[in-house]
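If your schedule permits, I should be very grateful for your opinion on a structural question. I would ask you to consider whether the tokens describe a fold that such a sequence might reasonably adopt. Thank you for your consideration; the sequence and its tokens are set out here.
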Amino acid sequence: MTEQPPPSGYLPPPAAFAAPGGQYPNPYDPLVNPPYAGIGGWFNRMSSVFQRSWKSIAAIFAVTHLLPAVGIAVTTAIGTALVLVPWQQEMIEAAESGEDPRFDTLVGPFLGLMGVIVVAAVLFTVLQAAGYAAGTYVVTRDAAGAPTAVADALRYGFRRCLGLFGWTLVTALLVLAGAIACILPAFYVYAATALVGPIYLFERRTPIGRSFTIFNNNLGRVLGRLAMILVIVIGGSLVTSTVESVLNLVFGGAGSFSTDPDGTVQLAGQTGMSIAGSAVVAGIGAVISLPFTMIQFVGILLTYAEQRGHEGPVSAGSLAAELD
């Protein structure tokens, strides 16, 4: 009789994650970097995470980061065109008639556009929170030997996204307060709250206070990991900005070839071309930046797991159990 495969969705027993002879820390744990492994072990585990889970992470971030970013870009472009073209037309008509332009009829559409952008930004942030939670779930369970479907990970992400969004909002306000006080405190708060997301998902208790404690107790190690992540993110931003600048030049040039003799129609056409080009550029920029966003996410998750390993016995299996 052919042996049946074990049922999916269950974690292996804790013994499956134990090092030979009960050694701790386990040098073979796929998620928790042992204290003596240093930055090399951290990078090795990042590579292993992508080898195991890159397809799932990419699918999750495409749904929760890429598609909403493209949607916001298109919505903003259309809304801007609906407001900007009438404004330009009013300016032209006022110049031709010698009268002062009247913008009172444009206040309503402008405020409506601002409202749509604010609502879209909030929804986008909530979706991002769902993506981070779902990514944490799938990466941790893959490392624990209990792979999960993307749909199940997304269900987990949407179940936890509002709480994560709330703590993200509080963290952003703290960073803003630091920036108002002085630039240096803002950098400190930003770094000290970098682990709020994983702490909320795994521990469910005082994530901001815990993040400050971990950061202050392991300043050099955590700051070193965050610096590596920052270098990668800045490199990705430079690549994205360069590509967007080139594309903006291309689309900006395309908008100047209108030969319509009617100045209003010509201006509206150029404006529409420019706004449509901006939407396309924003979408392409979102695609390019997606891999760097994934690297940032994995780096922060591994940094948190490493600090937990310094505090006491922990493994990929025990971390996966904490998520359930």
Notes: DSSP finds nine helices and no strands in the chain. The chain has one domain: 42-92+105-323. Confidence is low (pLDDT under 50) at residues 1-8, 253-261. Residues 38-97 form the longest helix (60 residues).
